[in-house]
Amino acid sequence: MRRTAKGIAVLASTTLALALAACGGEDKKSEEQPKADPAALKAELTWWDTSDPKNEGPAFQELIAKFNQTYPNVKINYQSVPFGEAQNKFKTAAQAKTGAPDILRAEVAWVPEFASLGYLYALDGSELLADESDFLETPLSSNKYDGKTYGVPQVTDTLSLMYNKELLTKAGISTPPKTWAELKTAAQTIKQKTGAEGLYINPAGYFMLPFMYGEGGDVVDVQSKKITVGSDQNVAGLKIAKDLIASGAAAKPSANDSYGTMMTLFKEKKVAMIINGPWEVNNVKSAPAFGGLENLGIAPVPAGSAKAGGPVGGHNYTIWSGMPQEKIDAAVAFVKFMSSAESQAFLSEKLGLLPTRKSAYNLDAVKNNPIVAAYQPVVEAAVARPWIPEAGQFFGPLDQMATEVLIQNKDPKAALDAVAKKYKAEVVTSYGL
Asked: Is this structure's pTM higher than 0.85?
């Protein structure tokens, strides 16, 4: 049975007193609430952080240290878990009712799935949602399942066109390309005039979505309960990606660690343009050869015949439903601190990450951040993904398809039809083809 927030809704007196004080109410009883000592809250929590351990992890550990300045007796066992392993690892541990973390940084598509399996606490009625309206609507919506809320947004993101300003200038290109056709021409010009590769496309399912969305496609239609991944629109989108490589506009992607290869080449100025997100800003910023943020350009992904848009991404803080009740207050205090506007502004300043709280955008660290400003039109053009329990399982077949099409030169229609059959057989079995 899915666990609710009975334990979460009743917080430590510290949290309650602070909340009442913040409201500034006229009830004298609220003024008489004893001011509890945060040091009285004692617990040991395990947090699985699925962010990049080198580029992002240190900033999250800094936040833990800040949290412990207020809550010195809440020990956070920080564990960096590879993103690609975390989804199945958490499901295995949660099903076994042992070894799962108390707090999980979950990718947005995982939350409905884990909630449907009963692995997460519903947070409705808890202090974590007392200011629910402060969260941006789309990031918050990824935490909803069956009328309840199972997480709070940590960060939102999407894919963008990231480019080397110096290389584009050398090639005589004054503005970033706005369509895939313009991108192809620009990439070929860059290669001809600078010797650097014009573009690198990561052959993975998530990175194919801008091409599919650009032609008006998507993987499923939730309203009609239909699998649409094999549509003509998606075929057309994949043909554009495939042509960019075949024409030489984009480098031939590596069969092994293509993502790592893409980032290395971009940081070393050997590739002028890539499609990636704000989670890599700090990585590029710290690269000795790149030239800092002054040389990094950010623009929306190019448009296809229908529109331009990358997938809405991001991560949420979730609480394992198997956590002992006596740890609930500490878990709520930790998640509340980590998801606060101040913490989000800290991460924005440190890493260029995009806050999910409206109030965070009023803080100087965010308001004056050029990366956040650059990503605003990118996020506005982003396409919401289907928040259904099965959505986290879409990308295994899509990853295989991307490899087959972009590396093994398989026909896009045949590859997408195979994905559709896989979805029907194993993922969304009640959907039609």
From this structure: no
